[in-house]
Amino acid sequence: VPYNPWGFFRGESDAQQYGGDFSLGQSRAFSQPWAWVDVSQLQAASPLHPVAVQCQEAQMVVTVHRDLFGTGRLVRAADLALGPAACRAVSAVENTVTFIAGLHECGSTLRLTPDTLVYSTNLNYDPAPVGNSIIIRTSPVVVPVECHYPRRENVSSDAIKPTWVPFYSTLSSEERLAFSLRLMDDDWSAERASNVFQLGEVLHFQAGVDTENHAPLRLFVDSCVATPSPDRNSFPQYTLIDFSGCLLDGQLDDATSTFISPRPRQDVLQFVVDAFKFTGNSSNLIYITCHLKVSLADHAPDPLNKACSFDKARSLWAPVEGTRDICSCCEVRNCGSAAHSRRLPDASQRQGGRFRRELSSQPDPLKEADVVVGPLLIHSWQDHSVLRMPSQG
């Protein structure tokens, strides 16, 4: 049956403490990477797990007992290989054979679940006849192996480098605030399950930042640009938000784009944008790249830290919070230099039993980030639908 082998939770000592054998349900209680191995083809009589896996930051270590079937007959290291690429063992010592492979090596595959990144491969045993013999005494075996990495845990700042295009992105590291940008359902209750839209629909964006171990922070969307590819510098491009928080798209006659007021929390900012696509782009794909930043929550919004929407009924710019004058620069499209924007320093001090970052006048690029949502697939109701024209921004 499938089992979780030793040594992949908090170290080998933990595995020994818990007896080295974990059920699938128990393993999910841990926030560390964990492994899963299916040895059902082996039917091994040995009390030892014949295949053990350690899921490390950037690689998996697969250890195979040569008494693979629990019969006392040792298999040859040359008959063992890892993955579709048939990677060979790095060592064969006494009764064990060890493979070490990067998470993306040896033909492993990656799949995404709501909570984990799962890297899958196989340990293959393919016995060859000995010498000139025309017989073999064991059967070929394929042992599926998986390494699971929590998506919402800081496993490593460098190790996991996904090859898929995420529906949303979250940037984090030990020294960096965790910024996120997500597409939400119309009632804001959950993330949207689909990235397919029709012209005429409204895109609901929710920007956020993880404020754990920080003084209370207020999040701002400094700018957002739409492009037909993940490269924010590609062309054509259409600017949705600019000038340190002015939602320019809301000024167009055919748009209802706006920031949502009031905020659900100081570290969350929501806004809506009417669906659009680029003319002449047959793929109908768009990517939205937004630059997010924070200021201390007890600092009043200013022209460089604001969230301003255009109120068509009154023909004026209005802030989500703060005085109306902080939005006046949106009209002239000149809100000063971002170099003077309030950001948080690296220095920390202990306060109330938790680390709290305090404000500095020096810019800190680790406290702001570009995040991407996409690809979004935008369909027309009819082939001759009138499209919103992109502008350069």
UniProtKB/TrEMBL annotation:
InterPro entries: ZP-C, ZP-C_dom, ZP-N, ZP_chr, ZP_dom, ZP_dom_CS
UniProt xrefs under Gene3D superfamilies: Zona pellucida, ZP-C domain, Zona pellucida, ZP-N domain
GO molecular function per UniProt: acrosin binding; structural constituent of egg coat
Renumbered residue ranges of the record's region Disordered: 342-363
Assigned keywords, A-Z: Cell membrane, Cleavage on pair of basic residues, Disulfide bond, Extracellular matrix, Glycoprotein, Membrane, Secreted, Signal, Transmembrane, Transmembrane helix
Entry comment on modification after translation: Proteolytically cleaved before the transmembrane segment to yield the secreted ectodomain incorporated in the zona pellucida.
Subcellular location: Secreted, Extracellular space, Extracellular matrix; Zona pellucida; Cell membrane
Topology with respect to the bilayer: Single-pass type I membrane protein
GO CC term, one of those recorded: plasma membrane
GO aspect biological process, one term: positive regulation of acrosome reaction
Keyword Secreted on entry: yes
Ion transport among keywords: no
Domain ZP stretches: 54-315
Domain observations: The ZP domain is involved in the polymerization of the ZP proteins to form the zona pellucida.
Family: Belongs to the ZP domain family. ZPC subfamily.
Function summary: Component of the zona pellucida, an extracellular matrix surrounding oocytes which mediates sperm binding, induction of the acrosome reaction and prevents post-fertilization polyspermy. The zona pellucida is composed of 3 to 4 glycoproteins, ZP1, ZP2, ZP3, and ZP4. ZP3 is essential for sperm binding and zona matrix formation.
Protein name per UniProt: Zona pellucida sperm-binding protein 3
Source organism of the structure: Crypturellus soui
High-level lineage: Eukaryota, Metazoa, Chordata, Craniata, Vertebrata
